[in-house]
């Protein structure tokens, strides 16, 4: 693990997972907005993107 910070392995993987999910969600939401997929029921679409 990283020896320069007091982070645990569990915290490291949690942060990595949160970062990965966030980046994937933003990319998918941006893609859907560009192609016009957010024109109908955007809240349901964003929820499905976040869960799926």
TrEMBL record:
Statement: the UniProt record of this protein carries the keyword Transmembrane helix: yes
Alphabetical UniProt keywords: Membrane, Transmembrane, Transmembrane helix
Transmembrane stretches, start-end: 12-35
The protein's name in its UniProt record: Uncharacterized protein
Lineage: unclassified sequences, metagenomes, ecological metagenomes
């Amino acid at each position: 693990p990283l020896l320069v910070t007091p982070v645990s392995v569990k915290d490291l993987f949690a942060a990595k997972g949160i970062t990965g999910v966030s980046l994937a969600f933003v990319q998918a939401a941006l893609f859907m907005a560009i192609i016009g997929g957010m024109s109908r029921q955007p809240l349901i679409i964003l929820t499905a993107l976040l869960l799926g």
